[in-house]
């Protein structure tokens, strides 16, 4: 029953993203065939999770989302139903970190928006570096993803695109090494910024 309902929800999102929004997916060949890995993406709209989730057609993404979204019982139930789990922002949330490792250990895909909040104006904000530490400790790659022209959805202001870059393997080292974590986080952010700038115009 759960699988039937989930597939029904995915089909609804497919109609909305590919049909209504005419979403374009670029770099789909860069998505690893199997997990575990982390997909890290910029964040400008509440539409970003379903855009990213439907763009990655052959994977189920376990999203990490801000705890505030789970305070509404109905929304909280729905988010958990589609494999999203909460994280408390502004502090180290050990429960969310442990859930992240559980997802990756199970061979699944962990979805994170490292800005931690929506960033307006077509820019990519500073990254919270926790995802980089998780990748380093779990020894998994990070798939950089960029979403463009989602900020004012459902009103379209340009072609809605989801772009996937080449996976970047976590560097050797310890997750407690601040310099290693920071450098890796910035490498992922730079990749996302480059893709966003390349594809945010009206032409490819």
TrEMBL record:
<keyword id="KW-0594">Phospholipid biosynthesis</keyword>
<dbReference type="InterPro" id="IPR002123">
    <property type="entry name" value="Plipid/glycerol_acylTrfase"/>
</dbReference>
<keyword id="KW-0012">Acyltransferase</keyword>
<keyword id="KW-0444">Lipid biosynthesis</keyword>
<keyword id="KW-0443">Lipid metabolism</keyword>
<protein>
    <recommendedName>
        <fullName>1-acyl-sn-glycerol-3-phosphate acyltransferase</fullName>
        <ecNumber>2.3.1.51</ecNumber>
    </recommendedName>
</protein>
<dbReference type="Pfam" id="PF01553">
    <property type="entry name" value="Acyltransferase"/>
</dbReference>
<keyword id="KW-1208">Phospholipid metabolism</keyword>
<feature type="domain" description="Phospholipid/glycerol acyltransferase">
    <location>
        <begin position="37"/>
        <end position="150"/>
    </location>
</feature>
<dbReference type="InterPro" id="IPR004552">
    <property type="entry name" value="AGP_acyltrans"/>
</dbReference>
<dbReference type="GO" id="GO:0016746">
    <property type="term" value="F:acyltransferase activity"/>
</dbReference>
<keyword id="KW-0808">Transferase</keyword>
<comment type="similarity">
    <text>Belongs to the 1-acyl-sn-glycerol-3-phosphate acyltransferase family.</text>
</comment>
């Amino acid at each position: 029953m759960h699988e039937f309902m989930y597939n029904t929800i995915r089909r609804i999102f497919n109609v909305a993203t590919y049909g209504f929004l005419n979403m374009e997916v670029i770099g789909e060949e860069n998505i690893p065939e199997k997990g575990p890995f982390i997909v890290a993406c910029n964040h400008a709209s509440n539409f970003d999770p379903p855009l990213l989730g439907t763009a990655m057609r052959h994977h189920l993404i376990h999203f990490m989302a801000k705890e505030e979204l789970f305070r509404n019982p109905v929304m909280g139930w729905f988010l958990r139903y589609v494999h999203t789990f909460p994280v408390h922002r502004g502090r180290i949330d050990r429960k969310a970190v442990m859930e992240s490792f559980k997802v990756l250990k199970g061979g699944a895909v962990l979805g994170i928006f490292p800005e931690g909040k929506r960033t307006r104006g077509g820019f990519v904000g500073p990254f919270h570096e926790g995802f980089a530490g998780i990748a380093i400790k779990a020894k998994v790659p990070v798939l950089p993803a960029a979403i463009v022209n989602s900020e004012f959805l459902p009103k379209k202001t340009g072609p809605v695109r989801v772009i996937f870059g080449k996976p970047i393997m976590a560097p050797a080292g310890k997750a407690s090494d601040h310099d290693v974590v920071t450098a890796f986080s910035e490498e992922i952010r730079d990749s996302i910024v480059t893709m966003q700038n390349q594809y945010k115009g009206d032409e490819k």
